[in-house]
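Q: Could you fold this chain for me?
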Amino acid sequence: MNTNHRRSGASRDLIFETHDLRRRAGQMMQVQRDARAPQDLGLDMIGVPEDSPVDLDLRLESVIEGILVTGTAEVTLTGECSRCLEPIEEKSSFDLQELYYYPGHEPEEDANRVSDEEEIDLEPVLREAVVLNLKFSPLCRWDCAGLCPECGANLNTHPDHDHGERIDPRWSGLKDLGAVLADPDSDRSQA
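A: Sure. Below is the predicted structure, expressed as structure tokens.
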């Protein structure tokens, strides 16, 4: 059950007071705030660094059931490319939309709620919007060539990288047989 009690790790920047909306349908307020990113906002390969800026542009509207929050969160994502392992840093924007129910109006147990202090905690909504929209295998660019499977060279910086003709190790013994057959005077051809 999501009761939206303040957790010890919850950032105070993501808690919004809603008493100005007075539980009257039709009331609205615009909120623009620079917040700090909470811990573990992302995936293994890419995410939002803890305490980095989160630019919030929100609209809080009072409706009969609660408070409807809509808007965007702009963040800087950092991580590494899943093909070449180079660092990635890019700005990204995520859409936010959630209905926070007043006590007594919850249709489901896990619904987000307005607290008894008339506050809402945006962290779970921000976390869901960011994490569910991140790519599991981020790329530094769409045509990333990756790393050489033999030596690990970055094929983006060395596109002409080559190790010569590859011979399947199971057939490598036949390579010498070709040289022996081509030179009948060799010591091996007389054996």
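A (continued): Residues 1-10 have pLDDT under 50 and may be disordered.
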